[in-house]
Design a protein that fits this description.
Number of strands: 44
Oligomer: single chain
Radius of gyration: 48 Å
Largest sheet: 7 strands, mixed
Strand content: over 45%
Number of helices: 2
Distance between the termini: 91 Å
Length: about 650
Amino acid sequence: VQATDDRAVTSVIAKYYLDSESTPSITKTLVNSTDFAAAENVQAIFTLDLARLPLSGDHTIRMDVAAVDDRGQRSDLNTPIYSTSIAVKADINAPVVAITSPIQGGNLYHGEEVVFSWKAFDESGVKSVLIQSTEVYRSNDSSQAELNVSGNVTLTVPSSGDEFIVTVIAEDYFTNITNPTVWKYNLLSDTKPEIDIRNPAPGSRFVEGEMVTVNALVSDNRPSDTQGLGLVHVSIFSELDGVILFEKSFDASEIIKNTQNESYYSASLRVPNHPENGAVLKVGVRATDGTGLTTEKLLDIEILEDLQKPLIQMTAPDIDIEIMPGDSLSEIIGTGTDNEYINTITPVLVDDQGFETMLDWEVFVRNDKQQDVTVPNPLSFGELIVAQIFKTDFNGSFRIPESFSANSGKTYKLLLRAADNGINTEDSNSINLTILADKEAPVINLISPANQVYDRQPLSVHFGVEDNILLDTVKVMIVGEPADQPRLNLINLNNKEFQTSQLEGVDLQGLAIDLNTYIPIVGQGKYFTVIINATDTSGNTAEIKQLVNVLPDLSPTVSIVEWNPEDNKMDAGALAYQQVNIEDDYVSHDDPVEYFVAYSSLKATGGVGSRDPTGTIEQKVDAQSNPTGIFDPVMSWPY
C-alpha cells in the first residue's frame, strides 16, 4: 500500500471483510519505526494469512485501507475509503507425490532392507504421505503447511517372488487425496561373486619357489560402489593348512576401478613347497560381496619338487668372536644363490655335541634379484640366455639369549642356514663363537630411606636394581628382624632391571617402616639398618647396607630477618614490611610447615612489654567433634 501526506504518514490500517460481512474479520496496523519510516510518501506491505479465516469453497475478501498522519488525521474521514477485492478460489487439486530413489523398474534383491526416498508438492501444503507395500508407512502430519516435503522410509524386500510393488498416496490440508501411484521393481536373488582365472593356465607345472603371476577377472551381480553392496573384498593368496603364506588384498578404490574397467586382479608370488604328510595347500583367488557371500577359486597347477640345494656364504664376520649373553652381534653379511628362490636364512649355533640352537634376527635386510646365465651365440652376434639364477645379498644382526649365561666359557660354531621353497637346505661356512662368563654383579640404587629420618614420618624402602644380563633374586631385610621373614623376597625375576614402583599389594606394604616402634626418641635418636641383596642368573651378588638414624622431630624455629622501617617505628597508615624466616628439621609435601603472622598492640600492665605471646598447636576436630590428627599453629597472649 502506498500512502502520501503533506507532512508525514505515521501508520497504515488495513481491515479485511469476508464476503458481504459488515464486521472486519482481521484488522492489522503498520506503524512508524516498527514497520516503516515516517515520511510524506511511504509504502507498507501487508501479509494476509488465509488460514486465520474460516474458508471453504470460493470467497471474496474486501480490504479497506486508511492512513494516519503525525497529527492523528485519518485519510478515510474526508475522502472515500480505499478498497480492493481479493478472490479466493477453493483448492481442489490433490498433491503431486513420487518416489525419487530407487528408480522405478530397478533391481532389488530378496530379503534386503531398502531405503526409499520420496517427495511431495501441493499448492496449499502437504498434510501426510502414505506408502504401502508388504509394510505400511505414514508420515507424521506436518505441524504447519509446507508446499514441498520429502522423507525416507526403509522397507524390507520379500525373500521370494520376482516383483515388488510400492503404492504411494498423499493428502493436503483440504482433504484432497491423490490417486494411488504404483511403483514396480524387479526382484532378484543375490548370487556369489564369479571368478575367472586367466593365468596360469590349468595344468601348468611349476617348481617350488618359482615366480608365478596370477591374473583373474572377478565380478558380482551387484555393482561395486560406495554403498558396499557389490564386491567388497578380493585377494590372491596361498595358504597351508589354513595358515596364510602369501596374500595380496585389493582395497575398495581398486575394486571399483577394476569393476568399471573390467580389468584383471593381478599378483606375483613364489610357488609354495610341495605339500607333504597330508597337508592341504591352497593357491587361488577369494572374493566377497557386501552381503557376505564368498567365492573361492583355486589354481589348477602341479608343483614339482626342487631338487637343487641353495648355496650360501657368510662373508662377515670372518674371525672367531667372544660375546656376552644378552649382547647383540651386528654386521652379519653374506650372499646366497639358488636355481629358484631362497626362502629363509637362519643363524644357527652348534655346540660340541652337535645340538643346534636357532636364533631370530633382530634386524635383517635382503636384496633379491634374478641373474641371467648366458653363453655366446654360436650362430650370430651377442649371447643366449640359457638359465636364470636367483641371488640375494643380505645383512643383519641377532642377540645372544640371556639364558646362555649358564653356558659361559662354552664355544659354539656359528653358521647361516639357507632354505629354498622346497625341502632343500644348505649351511654356510662357520666361525667359532665363545660365550663369555658374566662376572659383573647387579647395581643397586637406593632411593629411600636416607641416612637420617625423623620421628613418626611416613617411611618406605624404595630402590632400583639392574644387571647386564638377568636378575635372579632381590631381598630386603632390616637388621634385628627374623632372617627368615625378610621385608621382600623375589625369586626367578629373569629381568634386566627391577624397580619397587612395580610392586603392589602385600609386597609393597612389606616395604613400609613404622617409626612408631622406635618411640620414645630423644637425644641422638635411635638406629636401624636396611640391607638390600640382589643376585643375577650367573650367581653374582651385590649388597648395600643403609644405617638409618631416627632423630627426634624438633619444633620449627621462627625469626624475623628484615624489618621495614628499620627502627621498628610504624606510623599510622604507613606501609610496614617484615621478612619471616622459618626452619624445621623435617618438611615434606604431606607434612608441611604451617605458619601465620599476627600483629598485636597489647601491652603489659603499666604499659611495658607485650604480654609474652607464646606459640602452641591446636588439633582440629570433625563435625562430630572427634580429633582428626591435623594441627593448626596457634598464638596466645595473657589477657
